[in-house]
Amino acid sequence: MRILLTNDDGIYAPGLRALRRELMKIGEVIVVAPATEQSATGHSVTLLTPLLVTEVFDDADQSFLGWAVEGRPADCMKLALLELLTEPPDLIVSGLNAGSNAGINVLYSGTVAAAIEAAFYRHTAIACSLEYTKNARLDWPKAADYARQVVEQILAHSPAKGSLFNVNIPPLERGGVKGIRVMPQNVSVYEEKFDRRTNPRGRTYFWTSPEFVCHEPHPDTDVTALAEGFITVTPLQFDLTNRPMLAEMGNWQWGLGE
After folding, report:
1. Contact at 8 Å (CB) between 144 and 15?
2. Lesser CB count within 10 Å: N end or C end of the chain?
3. CATH topology of domain 2-185+222-241
């Protein structure tokens, strides 16, 4: 099995390295990932600057690891699938991200965006993220082991080409994982805060708070199951069409004046 691995934390991120070691147990792994951190870049792509690409080698044995791209996660997928890989991958995995990508976070996540881009090209794609508590020491090897097990179980069901899955692992420092749940995406509003400041020249500026809290999540969603200690798996789609509204609008009377 040929596996393409990417992320949004950058090619040198410990989460990607840990997940690579686990995925190598089930196939050949090639990495195409951003050269630097691209968290919360969503599905943006680079248009006005060149995409510089550098070969990267494993620190341990100097074997070829993959390519670092001076661009966004979606850029990495486009280059990997259209230019860099000599053979198409059987699976694309994005992660292992530092921080959960549950609820409406999927709209901002570069990790999920890379998986979506892969699904555009009719590849099975899985985004994997690890939630953590502040100042916690992250157990990347254990989290990567969990992620690999979930990936294997998804593959065991032979998902159709273009299938897209979002996997979130609860904070391991809170105790053992209770199991795996297939859950819908939470769409409740998150609380967001900004730290307002004034610079020495009197200009107002803001720092975005790193805290992104959903105080009233919908029950039985990825956010609630994750808070209860379960690994969550959510099948996603990138067709944003509101089908019921589309049908209703087809009955409206439309026209243009002279």
Report:
1. yes
2. C
3. Stationary-phase Survival Protein Sure Homolog; Chain: A, (3.40.1210)
The first and second tokens of residue 64, run together, are 């070829």
Q: How many CB atoms lie within 10 A of CB 229?
A: 15
Task: Give the angle 239-240-246 at the CA atoms, nearest 5°.
Answer: 105
Beta strands in 47-177 (DSSP E): 53-57, 64-69, 91-98, 125-130, 164-169
Overall pTM > 0.90: yes
Distance CA 127, CA 234 (A): 10
Peptide bond into 96 cis (omega under 30): yes
Q: In this predicted model, what pLDDT tens digit does every residue of 191-215 receive, in sequence order?
A: 888 999 999 999 999 998 777 677 7
- Sign of the CA dihedral with 42 first, then 46, 47, and 49 last: positive
For 77-134, how does the pLDDT look when each residue is reduced to its tens digit (9 = 90+)?
A: 999 999 999 999 999 999 999 999 999 999 999 999 999 999 999 999 999 999 998 8
- 121's tokens: 């090209």
CB 53 within 8 A of CB 84: yes
Q: 175 in the Ramachandran plot: left (φ > 0), alpha (ψ -120 to 50) or beta?
A: left
Residue 121 CA: distances (Å) to CA of 19, 114, 165, 232:
23, 11, 15, 25
Read off the tokens for 154.
């998804």
Longest dimension (CA), the chain: 73
Domain boundaries, the chain: 2-185+222-241
Element (H, E) at 246: helix 243-249
β-strand partners of 66: 31, 56
